[in-house]
## 1
Amino acid sequence: MATGNYYVPSSNFKLDGGGNSGDFVASIVCSSFNDHGHVNIHYDGSIASPITFPPSIIQSPTSQIVEVGSDATFNVNASDPSVNYQWYFFATTDTGYWPYTNLLYDVTNEIPGATNSSLDITNVQSTNVGYFGVVVSNLDGFARSWPANLTVYSDATPVLSGALNPTNGQFQLNISGVTGLNYILQASTNLVDWVPLWTNTSPFSFAETNMPAYPQRFYRSAFIP
């Protein structure tokens, strides 16, 4: 007689049989069970009702920065693909926005019809700025995602600032644009040929430490989509 314990709640368990006879005592937790009609089963307890579990969030929606008028899509990945979905929106003006207060089932924060694993927002406007979260649920419970932040911008033009009078042959340039977007800083001595100096997310700074090497030098920055 052989014994064993199998805990594979998300897997299928199959017994093919067709060999020598023998006894096997086991405790099995699985998603589905198939004996292929080749084995005789005696069990203590019940296998008529499947064992289910509350869902969990495998991957929460990701924060996004989009231009006004464009589209945004949020996705969630749950442990059970057959769960129910309900998306919620919390404006940045909400006091104690998701998930730090008990706004979980406040219907005023529900997005009507947003009951899929993904949420599409078309023609994004400033009124869409805020936090988006989703509740996944089944008969055994629920789980809520971490909120994703939607930032909307209308102008990605960078602004350069820094010392107008370099000292000791060096000064610092500050580059600011839409927070979180990528910008490149370039330099030129003739306003024709531009050399990349630094790429970073706004805001950031660049230290020029070798001004005496250039009779004159110009700087510019640009947004990188």
## 2
Amino acid sequence: MTDGVTSRLHQPDAAAIDALVAAGFRLELVHPDHRERAERALLLLAHLDGEPSDDTAALVDLAYLRIMRASEPEPELCSADADALDAWMLANHDASRVPSSLRDRARRHAELAELVSSGGPAPSDSLVERTLAGVQSSIDDEEESRRLIIPRVRFRMADLISLAAVVLIAVSVLWPVANEVRFQSGKTLCNANMASLGGAMGSYAFDNRNAMPVVSDATSGTWWDVGRPRSNSANLYTLVREGYSALADTACPGNPNARTKGEDADRDWHSLDEVSYSYQIMAGPHRPRWNGGRVLVLSDASPVVRAAIKRRPIDPWAGSNNHAGRGQHGLWNDGSATWLSSAELPDGDNIWLPRQIEQAIARFQGRRIDPIEGTETPAAIDDSFLGP
């Protein structure tokens, strides 16, 4: 077919779709020359039955926003407003879930959107009358010179199927782009969280003689038991409990189970899957201080701890699940935040393991190493070991 929307398809694809329609969508009746392409068309059409999720809808909105922003450079937002708009859309239009550094701007975006969707302020009667009079005058002049003719458009079934195929092919091209948009937006929001937590850590240290957040009795025991007094996550939760940080700033966009609202009586997260960030293990005698020797003290959630708890083999060099295993953000004790594409720092320190296990792996590479037990502690102050 060469008419209508089917002209946008490659000629062999259009011929295959014609053959499929003529065969009543029975693949076995399609001529062998067209059968392979017809089978692909059937697979594409099968996706029309799917229902998009709320997360997909937000992602599509964000993808279109990025495309429009790239194609229409004027007028453009400043970088802070653009980041806030992206964050607000990725949070499904809930400004309370946006990192605190962008939350005020996101709320202004929400107010503008509400103004537009509600129709804006009520116009005065005189303005309405003048507007209607001008519209009517324009219509009268136009009707004298020409009449609007609405043509009747007819589509064949093959045309509609071809249109659906074009749409699905376009989606298959757009989807990887949309996934990359989601990944980059998640990184932007997570980086904003790290900046907020860095500020909270600095404020806590200023009030506590340069000490980092720690629960007084969290000196031994199994530190990955979230919700219990000795858990290491309770140390990080100190920032929330004592008002230095909002709970939403500890929720990575890549963690669908992260909590953004808590109760005043909470002293920790309720379960491990709610914890988005792994904090330097504060059990044992070796505790780094804020603005001491440079040490990585916070990162996206450790995949090693989550595998070890389930008694599964660990990959010491795996990236955080928060960012699809492609890396993790890290916060240093001088307040700087960086993106880490590897779990191994430039000096060879693995952020998921204490030094004694790192040394054991180095000695016995190629042999099985037992997973961590949740009782290990850093070997020295400069030994980055993050969990849970």
